[in-house]
Design goal:
With about 130 residues, the chain is an all-alpha fold. About 80% of the residues lie in helices and about 0% in strands.
Amino acid sequence: MKKAKQNLAWLGSITSLLAVATCYGTLAAVSLLSLIGVSVHIDEATLVKLITTLLVFALAGMLYSWRSHRHPGPLMLSLGAGLLLLWVFYGSYSKPLEIMGFILLIIASLWDFRVKKRICTGNCDDQNC
């Protein structure tokens, strides 16, 4: 049971990084394919819906992670990044704001990784916690 909770605690960080990879990885793949002459049409609305879904999972995972370590920083930063990205996707599109939102999401994920790494799992002595 404890192992399953630990695995679930990584959901926010992993899904945040997956949202970034989905957005820019898809663009990179389409660009590379076009360089070799393969034309691929990607429906932007579908891509935005996929990224939004990953973003919702990322925020839910960050909330779950916060419940285990109680450090509010990564959660607050990811919420801010998520709101910024939702504004960019469904409000007024801006490439610099999109990039900033994804950078903030990556920073929140890395911060969450560090916070989780510092948590004492109960297998260490009090000096290491």
